[in-house]
TrEMBL record:
Annotated InterPro entries: AAA+_ATPase (IPR003593), ATPase_AAA_core (IPR003959), Mitochondrial_chaperone_BCS1 (IPR050747), P-loop_NTPase (IPR027417)
Keywords, ordered alphabetically: Hydrolase
Similarity-based family: Belongs to the AAA ATPase family. BCS1 subfamily.
Span of domain AAA+ ATPase: 260-397
Tree of life domain: Bacteria
GO molecular function, one term: ATP hydrolysis activity
Name by which UniProt lists this protein: Putative ATPase YjoB
EC number: 3.-.-.-
Amino acid sequence: MEEAFNGWMLAGGAAAVTILATGWGHVKSLYSQIAGRVVVKITTSGFQADAILLYMKHHFTASRFGPRAYVGWKLFVRPKSRVQLVSMEIAPPTGRLYWQGWRPIWVAKSKDGLGDMEEGLQAADYDYQTISITFPRGTIDPDTLITDATNFFNDQVRDYESTGGRRHSIRFVHGTAGNTATIQMKGKSGGGSPTSSSDIRACLSHRPLGWSFSDFGSDPGEDISAVDRLALDDVTRDLVCEAGRWRQTEQWHQERGLPWRRGYLLHGEPGTGKTALARAMAEDLDLPIFVYDLATLKNDELLKAWNQMLAEVPCMALMEDLDAVFDGRKNIAVQSGPGLTFDCLLNCLDGVQRADGLMVMITTNHLDKIDPAIGQPGAIGSRPGRIDRVVSMGRLDDEGRRKLANRILHDWPQWIDDICHAGQGDTPAQFQERCGRLALRLHYGEADADAVAGAAVASGERR
């Protein structure tokens, strides 16, 4: 009798639990329906999440109560002329209350996924995160909030109004090709991450402590052209002039149905200034540079990074030492595992997706290892649309040597003729080192000027 009673009790308990669980689901559903009539909850991710956080920072007042979160980024600080650790307050993971007048709004990280939308070209970024925004119904219009945040984001980030109007920055693109270790993909923290010490896009939604955003990044107030610091021959000076005209003729190209893009292949022995020229041109043209480490990239990684870059045009894609990655069409940089294929590279350089506003710069030390599908010398080039012009960068001529010598040895002009003679046949890197070494010894008075100059000349004669 007792066993039967216990059996009925167990069965009844199980039934009660089932009924309670079913009922609780209905209770939660009912609660959600009621709460939805009282409050509005928005979930957003990617660039849109960044836009919301940036907009909240400038147009809402953060509550002084509740949790606080801070992060430190290594950024170039102009007043210090150094890369320094900068402390910034970020949105805490548990959420924070903001006020716009009397209207409250709660912003927090969301545990809800956005499904397939997370893989969209514009949704995923280096600063990927998903946030939820909750506020009383009727106090804020959701569409207006999203639209205002988007417009403000475009003004601040794309036009860089908060950073002196400059867009130039250097961003490095790496991949996982050739890495035999087990790679665990970590979810983004949502705190943002600068891709270089001069790129502050990821930090604009934060609050810096002790500095303002005008203190970070490359100095837009410099009057000296970056290209003018270099010693160039007639060919490279013509290249710089052509690139400057390209930058100013977007509408001209559009009116004629011409693609507004350029591709240059710079070749020459090491030390001839190929990378220096590319970076100086980007700085003067105010273009963000995306530096691709092709040896570490797989096909899917390059495609994803390339598509994200195209959202930032006008910009420059820089691929250094292509001959160290591809010998013809063979990837010689990755010995095991999947690596970048030549076809994938070609598809990015000249694929179906429009690339108006893109300048491609490729450098190589060995032109003979470059497949003609990329580009070879000629009156027009072997493959316009990918590489429009192939430029040879060689050793300095007399004019180039004198330009560098006048800049470095301006306190000792009487030795410029000697050092220029000694440096015949130097690459720009070699001649700069020659002048710098002489100037430093003269500056510290470590040797008689005649002896130093004589040693410089003798060094040149021994070459």
